[in-house]
Amino acid sequence: MFKMISPPILKKGDRIGIVAPARKIAERDLLVSFDIIRQNGYEVVFTDNLFAEENQFAGSDDLRANELQIMLDDDSVKAIMFARGGYGGVRIIDKIDFSKFVENPKWLIGYSDITVFHSHISRNFSIQTLHATMPINFNENDETALESLFNVLQGSLINVEFESNSLNRIGNTEGLLTGGNLSVLYSLLGSCSFPETDGKILFLEDLDEYLYHIDRMMLGLKRAGKLENLSGLLIGGMTKMNDNDIPFGKTAEEIIREAVDEYNYPVYFGFPAGHIENNIALVMGRKVSIIYDQQKNVYTLR
């Protein structure tokens, strides 16, 4: 199996940089998260431009790209937490020079719109990244989400038990983990930022989408050949889905299951990650296994 590079684990006192590559954010929305990062033994680093504004964005495309570039190139910064998602990562991804990051990898941490960075880095540089909660969410997250984030940064392996679902296609599997937000992945189709999916476990989650659009995106991935040769399909939160006055007639989970009915790999619903309080950290690019316990009717990802 192809070797992915894991960034170094963090030590107490290491510096964690905070950047906002997409939607704007106010300082008051991050104060709790700064305290939590410091309580876990790390120094918080950010520039005066973190709270910049240009319409819905955290400053212009060039400014946001430069802010990320500063953190990527600073060898004293050992991890980068994306303050929040929203929309905007895809507008700056082609402006970033990852050469110093490749020489000295560090953990890049976030989810949702940050799927752009997870996918681009996996596809082009074979470096692991961390799909996990972001500072804007720290005040809402439960303890398991935050523990999983800091445990990974300190070198612990993920071991998560989750319940079976009637839509699952039962089975055990293993493979490199890839994926993230379905809408963002769909927007990357055909580009150099879309991750390789053959032989991998594809993780998907989404928020605030219309059910017909879930169907459109799953069929788009399917017709592009991205769902055919997976080792497994892992579905997290499909949160706050919307429908029209004339119902689509299926849940998001049913739409996803139908899209992969003709394939034989295991399919797992209800993994605790995504736009939910217990957003468990997942290392994109790490080899994981998913094992079914028939007696307990639960799965374990490790």
Question: Can you characterise this structure?
Answer:
The structure is a single chain. The protein is an alpha/beta fold. The chain folds into 2 domains: 139 residues, Murein tetrapeptidase LD-carboxypeptidase, N-terminal domain (Rossmann fold), CATH 3.40.50.10740; 142 residues, Glucose Oxidase, domain 1. It is 27% helix and 22% strand. It contains 9 helices and 13 strands. The strands form 2 sheets. The chain has a 7-stranded mixed beta sheet. Helix 8 packs parallel to helix 9. The model has no long low-confidence stretch (mean pLDDT 97).
Sketch the major β-sheet.
Answer: 7 strands, mixed
Q: Tell me the helix content.
A: 25-40%
Q: How many individual β-strands?
A: 13
Count the DSSP helices. Answer: 9
The name CATH uses for the topology of the largest domain is Glucose Oxidase, domain 1
Spatial sequence of strands, sheet with the most strands: 6-13-12-7-8-9-10
In N-to-C order, the SSE pattern is EHEHEHHEHEHEEHEHEHEEEE
CATH top level of the largest domain is Alpha Beta
How much of the polypeptide forms β-strand, as a percent range? 15-25%
Rg, rounded, reads 18 Å
- What count of domains describes the coordinates? 2
CATH homologous superfamily (4th level) name of the largest domain: LD-carboxypeptidase A C-terminal domain-like
Low-confidence segments: none
End-to-end separation: 17 Å
- Shape descriptor: globular
**Average pLDDT number:** 97
Q: What is the CATH architecture term of the largest domain?
A: 3-Layer(bba) Sandwich
**Helix-and-strand structural type:** alpha/beta
Oligomeric grouping of the chains: single chain
